[in-house]
Design a protein that fits this description.
heterodimer; A: mainly beta; 5-stranded mixed β-sheet; 65 strands; about 15% helix; elongated; disordered C terminus; B: about 400 residues; alpha+beta; Ubiquitin-like (UB roll); Pdz3 Domain; about 25% strand; disordered N terminus; LLGL2 (chain A); WD40/YVTN_repeat-like_dom_sf (chain A); GTPase activator activity (chain A); LLGL scribble cell polarity complex component 2 (chain A); cell cycle (chain A)
Chain lengths: ~1000, ~400
């Protein structure tokens, strides 16, 4: 009987869990790591980026995003949209072609792979015969032309990849007709480029590596013209009027050729114009050339590369020439590809924007505004323009603060173009985010960036730079962006990717923002803690630094790490935004490892490997300093080994020198990296065969003599019952790496005397956990078992005031256990051992609220936990029971695990590459993911003005047609997806209702 | 070891003549051989006759072979009485001055002059050889034990290391490796975790129960299969206060051979002395057709039993107050801080291959047990041990 009842309770609990928790890797934010290919559909207004890891990402209007992943772990080398269809073809470096389509399903589109194909040559032919080097989707939308390394052009029908053998253009056919006097006729080499005549779809130009270009008629199956260029060919462009062909070459030259009628008409074959734009001295290849007409006036000519080899060979440049204006856009990373967006219906209008994909960012240049300013990207923003060192998420930002941050950010973005974002494909169907969320990232160069993380697009709002407060290593005259007048080529720096930090000590390590008061505190690598206040006006301050000696007379100390940052003594003009209010510098200047702010009490607490302190930023004095250092802990005493440091520093400096001295290293670097990878792969294979030399792990209980036991891991302010159960008092809790918790009672004067009466802190408790594992979190739970609210949260009526009548509990989260103690008398009440059971250790823990997706009013507080195995768990509060767990991050991905942040509503972010955040959700109610629809362009019926209803109907029809036509495989895919989709859309409906 | 009682000689009377020496004083009295009483009564009697009521002392006697042996429990007391022929010679020493070196030296008769005189005349302070101090069995604290012998396959060994309160490091290293298993498909190489190194003088080495290249199968009842080296490391460290490791010893020659049919477990009972089992043999497959062992190893203790109180002893210092350990149940805090294995021992005493401190395997006149103890055990500091001994007597075990 009893058992039955318990069983009933368990199943009910299981149901509640299902209503509360659900794991989703919703989407990725940021810029794709290692992009390798770019594609654009003018008709769909969609941009596609392929990556070296085989991912394909599509972007349209802000909020319209799709992602697909090839099963093969091979780099995407080319992406081509099919004309007039919502489909695209990708070529991987394993020579396979893949067909993707955007299929509408239940009112939204999804990206599906619907076919794959690999060219097969005649038996016995060398693989080079079928190795694809150029792809041309024919404007009919039915043919795909594939140029190969062997010099042949294969023609296949799409979709379905049916080879049309009779129409293939073999090398022999072409070679026979090559004029006798062409010097390279014996070996035309591979097909470098394929282009279609924009005005005559039957004509294509085949460009061979050796330089020869042949205009081929697809109907007559014969060559109509030969263009005998003699330099190695890099790219071919057929002008919009069909009259000229531009070719670019490996020696940095480009040529313009008139397209004539019949072969043999001697004059018309001649190259009309040949030029080496950055001439005289040897130049690098022009890898791509584009010419676009304008209605009035001269055309735009754009090309990448072509720089003088010796002096600017390391620059990554795109040259734009229009009339008298000539600019060499100088990017900070390698150019992958570029294209130009044209205005107007059917994209027949003026060139409006240049879109450039470089290795580390996407840059869009407004070509219609004077000075060609950059358009700010609403997505694909390089998070890593300086390496991310930490992140902090703040949920549900009050509108007031939100608007002030945006206003401050707008003043920083005046150099951007006012033009709207030019890529507008698809419809964003996602409902407006329920709340305003802010993600703050700290960077190596001392900046803090504010991102709008409420919705699908991670949009940059504001950038705070802390370096203005300090003197840094950089020489003010040593500005890399300096542009000298009359310089040739006429360089202009574009892009924001700049991984070179001025001074590693500026790096931001911890951030804490109070969303109600607008106070922000950031702490850095050299023990600096800044308290900042949001000010809407520019203001000039002199910053006085307060030095805090955390050693407190500890003897035998020798700090070998970096020195403190030098503070500027003269007043500094700070722009509107967050402006420094107070600066504290720890002595020794070790990296700050814990930081918290209590805006109601106006206190900031911080800790390093030596101890912790509390600073009163109203009265600007220290009220508590505690040294936690174990006197025998030499490692913590000495700090990071200075020799390594100096090597790193000198390396960094020499890199900067190299960059400045315009000597190519980067290309070199890339090659080396590729070689290294190869070598590594080979080594790995060899190692796998050999018996691995064993790695040993020492089994030993933790002891008080371990290194870094005094390192402060977590700090927590709480208003709770520290000494007796009838009076609650403000308190500070600190947890160390050695499993020790310190509790201090804070005595705050009344509000009217806050400015003059001193605040005192008295030690109240010290808890040494027996297992001595590092403490990663401390939370006080109120009488209902709910975590205490944030400071000012109750004052702003945004949280229920905590239950102060029932007994409070202290939850101590160590790397190994979750343990609940009673308060004020500390005695163990409950615990959950994690490591002893499954061998994983807690890396991150955060309190979150999980709302039920079934009933509006039900929800629970839970603890989100990330382990070193990459698993996320939800632990119930206050019962500390494991609720659910999911594998989230690969356990080998150490930097991903280290970068994880949780939100207060059951979501999380972690870095999947230096430039991308993965967003995941454990909550059924809070899920942010793209929700969008892309309609295939109406090609045959030019009346494109549809009502939404009509649109839906037609898409349904199209669906029906597709399904009957396409392979059964699709149905299977869809079936499996449908289940997910149902769940998903249900959730969406619910969240929309919420 | 057995209770191989000697038949008292015919000339022995019903009374035993006792000659007791404390310091320079002798007392003579007699005891009834048939009704010797209990040891504590006897101890009280000695204190009484010597008029030293409050002196803690060590009681020794000379047995028939002339060995000097301790009397400290009912069993060895009875043994001493029953073998007295007829005179029982007792030597009393103050506990704090006790000299343990002379026990079991087998030389009381042969080197009468030296050894006995060493006992009789107070031991010299400037002795050349540093004294090796051996505690009495009741003074021992457990350092390790073999447990669950009855339910584990013979090829496996479950070892418990008592780290608690010891200064001594656990002292071993583990590594990744691979072991060969026999499956229906043939030999299969599977990854495993192995002991790679022992720290000399560490707890693991001193027990003699673990050795380099032993494969680790479980940590505190949780299988390590499928877990990474780091995970297993963390599990062991998290359990370091009370670590129970199930290993497959690399050397299968020292396995416990049980009488066949006696054990109820599903083990095949196959002798593990065979060379075949030395390498790549595991019970999972090799036990063969007769009695297939379930793929998971049965354990004799519910997982909850592993929850010992030991790590609830977090130290809390209240402001201005004394440090005190946190206890979960302050009311009936009678159990010691040393982790016990009570439930299991109560149920199956036979499964524990050990000398039990309350004398189920008595040390009657056998110098062997003491010698073994000398060899295998490392004595904790007697002070600490003394504080705890009352708590330990009923449950904990000492390994041979």
């Amino acid at each position: 009987m009893k058992r039955l009842r318990r069983h009933g309770q368990e199943s009910q609990r299981e149901r509640i869990k299902q209503e509360l928790f659900q794991f989703n890797k919703a989407m990725e934010h940021g810029f794709p790591h290692q992009p390798s290919a770019l594609g654009y559909s003018a008709s769909l207004q969609l941009l596609a980026i392929g990556t070296r890891s085989g991912a394909i990402k599509l972007y349209g209007a802000p909020g319209v995003e799709f992602m697909g992943l090839h099963e093969e772990n091979a780099a995407v080398t080319q992406v081509h949209f099919l004309p007039h269809q919502a489909g695209l073809v990708t070529l991987l470096d394993d020579n396979s072609l893949h067909m993707w389509t955007l299929r509408a399903h239940k009112g939204q589109s999804e990206l599906l792979e619907i076919g794959r194909f690999t060219l097969t040559g005649p038996p016995g032919a060398s693989p080079s015969v079928t190795s694809v080097t150029a792809v041309l989707p024919h404007s009919s939308g039915e043919l795909l032309l594939l140029g190969t390394e062997g010099g042949h052009v294969f023609i296949v029908e799409v979709p379905g990849f049916r080879e049309l053998e009779e129409r293939n253009i073999s090398l022999d056919q072409v070679a026979n007709s090559v004029p006798e006097d062409y010097i390279g006729r014996r070996n035309l080499e591979h097909v470098e480029a394929l282009q279609e005549n924009p005005v005559n779809p039957d004509q294509i130009v085949i460009g061979y590596g050796r330089g020869l270009m042949v205009i081929w008629d697809l109907e007559k199956l014969c060559a109509t013209q030969h263009i005998p260029a003699t330099q190695q060919l890099e790219s071919v462009w057929w002008t919009d009027d069909g009259k000229y062909i531009l070719s670019s070459h490996s020696d940095g030259s480009y040529c313009r050729w008139m397209v004539g009628g019949e072969d043999g008409n001697e004059e018309e074959e001649e190259e009309e114009k040949s030029d080496i734009p950055y001439g005289h001295f040897p130049c690098k290849a022009i890898s791509k050339i584009v010419q676009l007409p304008t209605k009035e006036g001269p055309p735009f000519l754009l090309f990448s590369g072509g720089m003088p080899r010796a002096s600017y060979g390391d620059r990554h440049c795109i040259t734009v020439i229009h009339s008298k204006t000539h600019v060499a856009l100088d990017f900070t990373s390698r150019i992958i590809d570029f294209f130009v967006i044209k205005d107007g219906p059917r994209s027949a209008g003026e060139p409006s924007a240049l879109v450039v994909l470089v290795e580390e960012e996407l840059v869009i240049i407004d070509l219609q505004t004077e000075g060609w300013p950059v358009i700010q990207t609403p997505y694909l923003v390089p998070l890593h323009s300086s390496a991310i060192t930490c992140s902090h998420h703040v949920s549900a930002i009050p509108l007031k603060l939100w608007e002030r941050v945006i206003a401050a950010g707008d003043l920083q973005n005046t150099h951007y173009s006012k033009k709207p974002w030019p890529i507008t494909g698809g419809q964003n169907l996602a409902s407006d985010p329920p709340q305003r969320d802010l993600l703050l990232t700290g960077h190596e160069d001392g900046t803090v960036r504010f991102w709008d993380a409420s919705g699908v697009c991670l949009y940059p709002m504001y950038k705070l730079s802390t370096s203005a407060v300090f003197h840094t290593d950089t020489d003010p005259n040593d500005n890399m962006n300096q542009s000298t007048e009359g310089e040739w080529p006429p360089f202009r720096k574009v892009g924001c990717f700049d991984p070179y930090s001025d001074d590693p000590r500026l790096g931001i390590q911890k951030i804490h923002l109070c969303k109600y008061s607008g106070y922000l505190t950031v702490a850095g690598t050299a023990g600096q803690i800044l308290v900042l206040e949001l000010n809407d006006e520019a203001a000039e301050h002199t910053i006085e630094a307060k030095v805090v000696d955390l050693l407190q007379g500890q003897e035998g100390f020798r700090w070998k790490g970096h020195t403190r940052l030098d503070v500027r003594e003269d007043p500094v003009l700070f722009p509107p935004g967050f402006q420094p209010l107070a600066l504290v510098q720890c002595q020794p200047p070790a990296v700050v490892t814990a930081l918290t702010l209590h805006s109601e009490w106006k206190l900031v607490a911080f800790g390093t490997s030596h101890g912790f302190a509390v600073y009163d930023y109203q009265q600007k004095n220290n009220i508590l300093i505690k040294c936690t250092l174990n006197p025998s802990d030499q490692l913590a005493m000495e700090g990071p080994l200075s020799r390594v440091k100096s090597i790193k520093k000198s390396l960094r400096q020499s890199f900067r020198r190299i960059r400045r001295s315009r000597v190519s290293l980067r290309k070199h670097h890339v090659n080396n990296a590729a070689k290294l990878q190869d070598a590594n792969a080979r080594l790995e294979a060899e190692l796998a065969e050999m018996e691995l030399a064993p790695v040993q792990r020492k089994i030993e209980a933790r002891s008080s003599d371990d290194s870094f036991t005094g390192l402060v891991r977590t700090l927590y302010f709480a208003d709770t019952f520290l000494s007796d159960s009838s009076h609650n008092t403000p308190s500070l809790w600190a947890g160390t790496n050695g499993g020790c918790v310190f509790a201090y009672m804070l005595r705050l004067p009344s509000v009217e005397h806050r400015a003059d009466e001193p605040i005192t802190a008295q030690p109240a408790k010290e808890i040494q956990l027996m297992h001595r594992a590092p403490i990663v979190g401390i939370v006080v739970l109120d009488g209902h078992g709910a975590p205490l609210p944030e400071p000012l949260e109750v004052a702003h009526d945004l949280a229920r005031s905590p239950d102060m009548h029932g007994s409070h509990h202290l939850l101590v989260i160590s790397e190994e256990q979750f343990k609940v103690f009673t308060l004020p008398k500390v005695s163990a009440k409950m615990k959950l051992k994690l490591t002893a059971v499954d061998g994983s250790r807690v890396r991150r823990a955060g309190v979150a609220w999980f709302g039920s997706n079934r009933t509006e009013d039900y929800g629970e507080s839970g603890l989100m936990v990330l382990t070193n195995q990459g698993d996320v768990h939800v632990v119930s509060l206050p019962g500390v029971k494991l609720q659910v767990h999911y594998n989230c991050i690969r356990r080998e991905d150490v930097s991903g695990i280290a970068s994880c942040v949780f939100t207060k509503h059951g979501q999380g972010f972690y870095l999947i590459s230096p430039s991308e955040f993965e967003r995941f959700s454990l909550s059924t109610r809070n899920l942010v993911e793209p929700h969008c629809l892309v309609e295939a362009p109406q090609y045959s019926a030019p009346s494109t003005q549809h009502r939404p209803h009509a649109n839906k109907a037609s898409s349904a029809q199209r669906n029906a047609r597709h399904e009957s036509e396409d392979a059964e495989v699709l149905q299977e895919i869809q079936k499996s997806l449908e289940a997910d989709q149902m769940l998903f859309s249900e959730n969406n409906v619910k969240s929309a209702l919420a | 070891m057995n209770k191989n009682h000697r038949v008292p000689s015919s000339r022995s009377l019903s009374a035993v003549e006792v000659k007791s020496k404390f310091g320079a004083e002798f007392r003579r009295f007699s005891l009834d051989r048939s009704k010797p009483g209990r040891f504590d009564e006897f101890y009280g009697l000695l204190q009484h006759v010597h008029r030293i009521p409050n002196v803690e002392m060590l009681v020794c006697y000379a047995d028939v072979h002339g060995d000097l042996l301790p009397i400290n429990n009912d069993d060895n007391y009875h043994k001493a009485i029953s073998t007295a022929s007829p005179l029982l010679r007792l030597f009393l020493q103050r506990k704090e001055e006790a000299d343990y070196t002379t026990f079991g030296t087998d030389s009381l008769t042969r080197k009468k002059n030296t050894v006995l005189s060493a006992v009789l005349l107070r031991p010299d302070t400037n002795r050349k050889k540093p004294p090796v101090i051996i505690s009495l069995p009741k003074d021992f604290r457990p350092v390790s034990s073999i447990i669950d012998v009855d339910i584990l396959p013979e090829t496996h060994r479950r070892v418990r290391l008592y780290k608690h309160g010891q200064e001594k490091p656990l002292g071993f290293y583990i590594r990744d490796g691979s072991s060969v298993r026999v499956t229906p498909q043939g030999l299969e190489k599977v990854p495993g975790i192995f002991i790679s190194r022992m720290v000399p003088g560490g707890l693991a080495e001193s027990t003699g129960l673990l050795a380099v290249n032993d494969e680790v199968l479980e940590v505190n009842g949780i299988e390590v299969a499928g877990k990474s080296l780091d995970q297993v490391t963390d599990m062991m460290i998290a359990n370091s206060h009370n670590l129970i490791i199930t290993v497959k010893p690399a050397n299968q020659r020292n396995n416990v051979v049980r009488s066949r049919g006696g054990a109820a477990s599903g083990s095949s009972g196959r002798s593990s002395d065979s060379g075949a089992s030395y390498y790549g043999y595991t019970s999972h497959s090799a036990s063969g057709a007769a009695a297939p062992v379930p793929s998971h190893i049965i354990q004799n203790f519910p997982a909850g039993d592993l929850e010992s109180d030991e790590d609830d002893e977090d130290l809390v210092i209240e402001a201005g107050g004394e440090a005190e350990p946190i206890r979960r149940a302050p009311s009936n805090y009678s159990m010691p801080s040393v982790p016990l294995y009570q439930p299991h021992l109560d149920l199956r005493t036979t499964s524990t291959l050990s000398v039990n401190a309350n004398g189920t395997l008595p040390a009657s006149g056998s110098s062997g047990s003491l010698n073994n103890a000398l060899a295998a055990s490392t004595t904790p500091s007697p002070d600490r041990a003394m504080q705890r001994r009352n708590l330990e007597e009923d449950g904990t075990v000492i390994t041979l």
